[in-house]
Amino acid sequence: MQVNQWIEEYDREGLSVAHLLCDRHDSNKKALLYENEAGEKKTYTYGELEKLSKKFAGVLKAQGVEKGQCVAVLLPKGPELLVSVLAIWRLGAVHVPLFTAFGPQAISYRVGNSGADTIITDAGNREKLNTIDTSSFRVITAPSSADKEVPSSDTPFWESLQEAEPVKESTEVAGDDLFIIIYTSGTTGHPKGVEVPVRALAAFKGYMQFGLDLRPDDVFWNVADPGWAYGLYYGMVGPMILGQSFIMFNAKFSVEEAYRILKEYGVTNFAAAPTVYRTLRAAGVPEGLKEELNVRVLSSAGEPLNPDVSTWAETNFGIPVFDHYGQTEQGMVVNNHHHPKLERRVKAGSMGQAMPGFRAAVLDENGTELPAGEEGQLAIDTKNSPLFWFRGYYRDEEKTQERFVKESRYYLTGDTASRDEDEYVYFSGRSDDIISSSGYRIGPFEVESALMGHEAVAESGVVGVPDEQRGEIVKAFVVLLPGFKESDELAKDLSRFVKGNLSAHEYPREIEFVEDLPKTPSGKIQRFLLRS
Question: Which ranges constitute the DSSP H helices of 335-443?
């Protein structure tokens, strides 16, 4: 079985992550297709990345970086990021991604918690370190379009790389050794560091082939930022596992540029968060563009996909958007799979089925599996999930134990869901986002999806607010499409629309029009902020 072969390949002694992701591939194969906001374009082959990362590994080694040490990387999408992580992994060290939108407080916590004593950044982000005591760690700084001064004590990225002696032999690691510590978004409490072992590469490869059906002749573009799990696991590491070409576009997202990239680079395999698709939908598709695109696969992850968005894509691009589900802690696990041998009929509102190598279950409050049709806690049956790799939160045994029940048989995702007789999984919401109204348990996503079906709605966020009579009532925060204006009559019409199309007990009794919704940097709606 393919899954068992991958486990044997990535869960053993004598491995090199840099070899697995770079050195073993065709040195002439294009790896990175890079473009930035200034219009600068560069292409790097796997052979070029191997040479550059061997030299930069020499820089890191000279500064004392060795196997098992954490190195924090505060870099935007681009060649410096790829060279840095490959160099880190070449030494058997651990990559700690820092999203470039982070401020000093977020950076300081992650650096401190991980114990990183080296930070790689660029001139544009260097000032974020000014309020942090950098005397206890080393800073390596790359140039950027932001013409800013950097401390003379910093090690210059490219200059030091050119002068360094390349590391010829990679440090060997085992499948259970860490190669990434990535922090959850921290919408409640401190962010938690997720330990990612080398053997997780088997699961990452599974998603790239089963979920995305990435093929050798594909041009792949995952819009997600590699400072977060989906962009790191599947926008950068994933395509390198397969030796594929992939795009990194380092610029602020815009509809016009997105369509240009899809057309100009001939993108065939595209992945993004629902927010991206909703933005494209709101702006509309330029006339005649459909015939000029080569997109074969559209995928969505990060939060549930509204069914009407997929319908819109099928109308305008000729193909639907497939919804996929995963977490920082385990990667992608439930998908509407694109692989021809796994592809099945897409059911409206379903995230799909468990990916080969995983078994999903729905549990009651006692940790007992529920039958089809009943809502409960979405869990992964670790006993029957050979690709499951999450082993714990870094330096937080208490939070780790909260995730497992029945002697670690089941991993709790923290989400509520149900499944049908065909093992299709339906997302209800985060456990703490469920609305309890007049004895009914209401998942906000279902109401949000219903609102998205109205011609005036661009986005919506739904929460429960206190009500003396019902305990809670449904309140919706609505972002309107261009050309529509907020009014009491429109609010009433939206309530009637949901009541008529969804259910008489789930419609929003309160509607507030807003210009935008609060979201995490990875694009997820922060409902706790809406509730407050």
Answer: 397-402
